Amino acid sequence: MKLLDPTFGTVVGFWTIVVILIAVFLSLRNLDVATNTRMEHDVKTLEENFRENNLSCFILGASGETGKELVKDIVSRKIFSRITLIGRRELKFEDNAHQSLIQKVVDFEKLND
């Protein structure tokens, strides 16, 4: 391959990009470990702050798949002193962990009344 051959520039450019992508990938992999460790610490600190401040929350859409998982996660973490579910109907839960939930039934069709 000659230096002035157009395919030479393409090959060099391709391998330059490959090397850069590998370098970026390796640096991000190392960054992820440090970031995840720091984030875990930050989440634990936030959870403790929420517990200490006696905060409450409300959840709309707890009967959907995402809402059910959210309720399960929030109840298991015990970060809120009061959890209120707002929905179209009262939900039934099988375990005792959900007994402390406050449920408010709202007819969303008659909000203006």
TrEMBL record:
A cellular-component GO term for this protein: cytoplasm
UniProt keyword Membrane present: yes
InterPro entries registered for this protein in UniProt: NAD(P)-bd_dom_sf
Gene Ontology BP terms: import into nucleus
Ranges that cross the membrane: 12-31
Keywords: Membrane, Transmembrane, Transmembrane helix
SUPFAM superfamilies: NAD(P)-binding Rossmann-fold domains
Protein name: Uncharacterized protein
